[in-house]
């Protein structure tokens, strides 16, 4: 399966954003904390979520989906995650904290490094150890044992996943925990809000210092997955790159501040409470210097989108990727096939481009794949984008949604 994209159509119209993959995965990880029913609305029907639900179901949860609403309930009957499912998605690691808190043990196979980087888990493990959990890291498998107790712990880096796992481990711990240098991404704040709805005693939502007083048990709750800020940025980038005009609705512009600032300086952008209008008449000279960093600074997940935008410009854009070491190289090679001139030196890419032409392209990771689709929509002529299984991990029908804006993109076997 690949996408066939005939570039050159200006995208126009309005498109709504669906729920965030990275929020849904964290919330699903937290369902291990209670046998009661957790109902998640706006839960995107994407491969990563389907695999996470499969994992929870294989471990004993009763799982059902009705449209975009997902219900999860029941006890885990096994705390050994099956390798065949757990290694399908990195998000499977998000069952660690909740499972160890509720069942005091877990054995979880780990997928290892991936196309975007080596993805170590030391911050998760040091955090759990600080809570008194014994962690046995065998490289491709981790076992955790013991009931967490309260602790004062500082993360060496504000890792999103480690913050999420630690908070889940703290909510049922004995005593008080103070977790410092927490990630403050909106997806982390959403998890904190769900935990409170489930009965957790947690203070400091959305801040880098969270205080948790452990409780004996948590109960069911109903919660809305937040809109996907990366999908919103993908649609906006596609409109900008094709010199189109449109509205991206059902999003939270506040979660997109760093990205919107980049666009606002270059295009006609109007920001409303839950939607963004963008009109792009011509490509800017360049996108300046972009440095990826934890929220609220420029997100790594939007970096490959901007590389494609920058590849449409004749001036020079510098992109410094501080989070995932391999994220620059692959798309640089692919975009160069389309006529861009991108050089990568360590974690810094220098991007120059102009009139891109179609090419045979291969997606190697999720956001990189979306970046290639954007470049192909902006280019002249036809492109083929393979490796779309990566894109399907995190996007609901990307081809169909972009076609609804007038993009000439379709799936071919
Ligand atoms: N890191 C460590 N040790 C750890 C954990 C992280 O060194 O124990 C490093 C990572 O190697 C990286 C940095 O810390 O350099 C940040 O990683 P973080 O843990 O914050 O990322 P994550 O939790 O693994 C989530 C998203 C990613 C997103 C990053 C950064 C989920 C399921 N994934 O990953 O999303 O890029 O935060 O915002 O929430 C994607 O959606 O395509 C994606 C990769």
Quick structural summary:
The protein has 413 residues and is an alpha+beta fold.
Most strands sheet? 4 strands, mixed
Q: CATH class of the largest domain, anyone?
A: Alpha Beta
Q: Any ligands, ions or cofactors bound here, and which?
A: uridine-diphosphate-2(N-acetylglucosaminyl) butyric acid
Low-confidence stretches: none
- The largest beta-sheet arranges its strands as 21-22-1-23
Per the CATH scheme, the topology name of the largest domain is UDP-n-acetylglucosamine1-carboxyvinyl-transferase, Chain
**Count the helices. How many?**
14
CATH homologous superfamily identity of the largest domain: Enolpyruvate transferase domain
What is the count of distinct domains? 2
- The coarse overall form would be elongated
Please identify the structural class as seen in this structure. Answer: alpha+beta
Indicate the CATH architecture of the largest domain: Alpha-beta prism
Describe the structure.
The protein is of the alpha+beta class. It folds into two domains: 2-17 and 227-412, Alpha-beta prism (UDP-n-acetylglucosamine1-carboxyvinyl-transferase, Chain); 21-224, Enolpyruvate transferase domain (UDP-n-acetylglucosamine1-carboxyvinyl-transferase, Chain, Alpha-beta prism), CATH 3.65.10.10. Helices cover 31% and strands 25% of the residues. It has 14 helices and 23 strands. It has helices spanning 21-30, 47-58, 83-86, 96-103, 122-130, 160-171, 186-197, 229-241, 257-264, 303-311, 329-337, 366-378, 388-392, 398-403, and strands spanning 2-6, 12-16, 38-41, 62-66, 69-73, 105-109, 134-137, 141-145, 152-154, 176-180, 201-203, 209-213, 221-224, 245-249, 268-271, 275-279, 289-291, 317-320, 341-345, 348-352, 360-362, 382-386, 408-412. The strands form six sheets. The protein has a four-stranded mixed β-sheet. β4 and β5 (69-73) form a beta hairpin. α1 (21-30) runs parallel beside α2. The longest helix has 13 residues, at 229-241. The relative contact order is 0.16. The mean pLDDT is 97. Uridine-diphosphate-2(N-acetylglucosaminyl) butyric acid (EPU) binds at residues 21-22, 25, 91, 117, 119-124, 157, 159-162, 183, 299-301, 323-324, 366-367, 394.
